Amino acid sequence: MLNTEWQLSGNIAERYEEFLVPVIFVPWARDLLARAALNPNMQLLDLACGTGIVARMASASGVTATGGDINAAMLAVAEQHADGTKLSFRHADAQALPFHDQTFDAVICQQGLQFFPDRRTAAMECLRVLKPGGRAIFCTARGLSENPLMQAQAAAFSQYFGDGAAAPIRAVCSFADADETESLFADAGFSSVRVNKVVLDLFAGDAVGFVDGMMKATPVADKIGALDSATRQQLRSTILDEFGACFDGSSLRFPHSANVAVVFRP
Prior knowledge:
By secondary structure, this protein is of the alpha/beta class. Helices cover 44% and strands 23% of the residues. The chain is built from ten helices and seven strands. A seven-stranded mixed sheet has the order 3-2-1-4-5-7-6.
């Protein structure tokens, strides 16, 4: 019998935009853009842009924004949501950026640095494409124990599918040391390096709908879809239970903890 209760419309990038961006990435984009203090005369690079929420929000305020990502599916969704002449997207490897020296006034990278194979080279590339006095802002998740969102998924996926299925979730929290982050940017040549712990209070009014959407946007979505309906509902309940006091029976309110590095090109 065909499973018709778990409809996976679109690819993971489209589900990421639909289910995760509003709850997680819009609040963080708002915070990071406030720290950047950009004005309409500035050029911004949204590095590892995903579906482009930072670039899109910056462009809406008049900034000329370029989103760069190595994932073609993410860029395709970003293009679908692009609106305005001051917004563009490029395929971009963080370790070999396709931009001229001193192109940008600012670089913002939201939850991307931890996934770069060569973080030092990526940091030096950001330094290269920044104008003198330009700033870069990097946001990376702190440890699992400080992030109920990732902790709940990692615990539940390990239980139902084995530890390997939880590896992509744990990877989100794989570069959590503030001192290591500070050393990375100082060694790359940045000045005035500051790394602070920042915690945002995130909210999903419909906890069940959010968790269902989150499951559809994870790398194990196909594994989840292969479960029978009763087991899939049990998995959802397990995730919600793992949120502990963050789940009030109908909504989720949970801390999202990250290191935010603000650094400058001399």
